[in-house]
Structure formats: C-alpha cells, structure tokens
Amino acid sequence: MLCPKSRLIFAILVFCLFGVAQQSKPHFAQPQLVFSNQVSANYDVNFGVASRFQQFEDSKLHSKFLELSHFSSWRMSSGHKISIGLLYRFSEQFDDTKPNEFRLTQQYQSTLRPHVIRFSHRLRLEERFVNSKLIPRLRYRFGLDFPLNGQVLDVGEAYALANVESLVQLQNSISPKYDFRALTGIGALISPDVKLQMSIQYRLAHLSNIQTGKWFVFFGGYIKI
C-alpha cells in the first residue's frame, strides 16, 4: 500500500492542477500509440503516432494534426539515459492556418526510485522547423509515478502518475515565451508488453500574458515489440 507521504504528494499535485483551472473544461483530446523495442542492453527505440482533436462550441471534435515520431535512447548508467528524436507533424491537411512542422529533439532523463515512488527529471532541447523559421525550445519536466497496489507494478494492476513542466521558447527578434504544464493520470499494465494510460493536462501558454489555460486529455497505448 502507499505510504502516507506518497498519498500526500500525489494529492497536492492533483489539487494544484484542478485548483488553478477550475473554470476550464477540456479543449483538446489526443490519442497516441507508441511501439518500443529494446535493441540491446543499453539501446532502445520507439516509434509513435498521435493525433489531436479540438473541441469547439458545437461540442464536436475537429482534427488538428497527425504526427509521426521516433526516439533512440542510450542508457548511460542505472537510471540515466540520453535520447535523440525526430518528429513530423502534418497540420496543413487538417487546418490550413497551421503549417507542417519538423522537430529535432535532444534529451537527458534520470530516474530514481528510493521506495515505492519513482521520481524522474527530464531536460529536453528542441529545434522546431516551421516553414522557414527555426524555433528553439527548452523544456524541463519533473514527474513521479507509483503502483496503486503493493510495492511493484504487476500485470493487471494500475498505477498513478503526475508531472509538472516548464518551457521557454526562443526566437530571433521575439521575446522569450514561457509556458507551464501540469498533468495527472492513471494507467494499467494489461500484459508484460502492453500498457494503457489516460491523463489530463492543464497548459498555460505565454505566461507574460493574462489568459485562461486549456485542458488536454491524452489516451495512450504503449506496446513492446
């Protein structure tokens, strides 16, 4: 069972997430499917496909984009790994006001599990190519996850997760833009190779401006092959 401290940490994150955005409702839904393969003891790859739908006043969901992604990761030591990623987002076919985007990613991630809770730190540098523009972006995410029953996650059991992330976007002749994101969710280990996960995220974009944030609902399937 979860210790009182674990429950308190998770409860605080959930409270903060819903407290900040209590006047909002979901604006976007994003299903995604990720396939991963451990090529060797220190190297693994994954391939993903995702789509985003926006909710308008008519309550219908309208497609915003389809994206394909790839990540290659190398384990440096226990709990530490570096990754490089490629992503292409097809937007023009769904929204003629949004151009397609190509993205390069470099990432460092560390994880630590002193007891039941696993803590993670992720530092990510992205180069976004939109039309002829290069838009660098720096992201830092702190997260945690833990099984809801017992000390380890077994097949057929559920787990909880939460994270907070800050972003800064840099672009020539334009002032930096700062974003904040907070997420909480739940998942289940369906089999040794399959996980299903649902999470809800609140995003505040361009913190220098006073505005209402937006909800994102994510549905994920993660399959080892």
Report on the architecture of this protein.
The chain has about 220 residues and is mostly beta strands. It has one domain: Beta Barrel (Porin). Helix content is about 10%, strand content about 65%. The protein has an 11-stranded mixed beta barrel with strand order 1-2-3-4-5-6-7-8-9-10-11. β1 and β2 form a beta hairpin. The protein is globular and about 50 Å long. The chain starts with a helix and ends with a strand. About 10% of the residues are buried. The N terminus is likely disordered.
Concise structural overview:
Helices cover 8% and strands 66% of the residues.
Task: Provide tags for this entry.
single chain; globular; 225 residues; disordered N terminus; Porin; mainly beta
Topology overview:
Elements: H1 4-20, E1 26-38, E2 43-55, E3 61-77, E4 80-90, E5 101-112, E6 118-130, E7 133-147, E8 158-171, E9 174-191, E10 194-204, E11 214-224
Parallel strand pairs: 1-11
Antiparallel strand pairs: 1-2, 2-3, 3-4, 4-5, 5-6, 6-7, 7-8, 8-9, 9-10, 10-11
* Beta strand count: 11
**What is the CATH topology classification name?**
Porin
Shape: globular
Mind telling me the C-alpha Rg?
Answer: 18 Å
Outline the low-pLDDT stretches: 1-6
What number is the mean pLDDT? 86
Structural class, by secondary structure, is: mainly beta
Largest sheet: 11 strands, mixed, barrel
What percentage of the residues does DSSP assign to strands (E)? over 45%
Number of helices: 1
CATH classification class = Mainly Beta
Taking the alpha carbons of the first and last residues, their distance comes to 31 Å
